[in-house]
Write a structure and sequence with these properties.
Layout (H helix, E strand, L loop, with lengths): L5 E5 L2 E4 L4 E7 L14 H14 L3 E5 L12 H18 L6 E5 L3 H10 L3 E4 L9 H8 L2 E5 L23 H18 L7 E4 L8 H9 L1 H5 L6 E2 L5 H7 L8 H13 L4 E4 L2 H22 L1
Parallel strand pairs: 3-4, 3-10, 4-5, 5-6, 6-7, 7-8, 9-10
Antiparallel strand pairs: 1-2
Helix pairs in contact: 1-2, 2-3, 3-4, 6-8, 9-10
Length: 297
Amino acid sequence: MSGARVWRLGHDRRVTLEPWCLMGVLNATPDSFSDGGDHLDPERAIATGLGMIEAGATVLDVGGESTRPGAASVSVDEQIARVVPVIKGVRRQTLGESVAITIDTTRAAVAAAAFDAGADALNDVSAGTEDADILGLVAERDRGVVLMHRLKRPVDDSYSDAYERSPVYTDVVRDVASFLRSRVEAAIDAGVDPASVAIDPGLGFGKTVEQNFDLVAGLPMFVETGHPVLVGGSRKSFLGATSGMTEARDRDPESAVLAVEAWRAGARFFRVHDVGIHERSLRIAAAVERAGRVQGG
């Protein structure tokens, strides 16, 4: 299945999505569900980011506000204080290299500061609905954007296996796809280049265990839009609820299996914590696919 092969980040910036693109998660937060507190120190965060690049990441996603279920919002000033030194440090050491940096925020002021510091794109878990100015900013700065589906804000959400009442969808795949199509239209109406818009079905955000797997199985519908499809299932609770691994940090094998299945479904863009295991796993999947093509003539 053929989907987007590149993601445009500006008039002279592109990210190649073939055979895949790995986005390393770099949370400069004290309370993220998997790596909270690991990268509050900018120098440690920068070193980790450079290690992710060496392991195969071509995008680093820097965030200063946790989006885990139950997480409280963080002020604009605090987010900027957390992310700008990391972005500047990574950019300083990757000048001339094909490494992209995304800013994981829903606030236009944070995105603007991150762009000034060297970020290439916005990763917005609210799909531009939380700050009315943010899509216009992306257009004005000619940057890339990832638009993600979520059912509710993190502070009001729960882990996939902990809902007292399951999130309600008529059809989770079609409902999420319809929402993302509408947000893509909003971004284009704001002036964002269509080739700069990526979409993310939002695994773990307002979905039960079963609904998350339905979305993975339904990825071809998202791929068919022609926009890059970012899959962010790394270490999430629906994987642990299925495999029995209660600690998020222990779910990297499950995360890699999910990425391989998503790749087989046509996705080419993955947001991950352990870059190395995903790179190795996808290489094996690609080798098997090549062998199959040879045998099939």
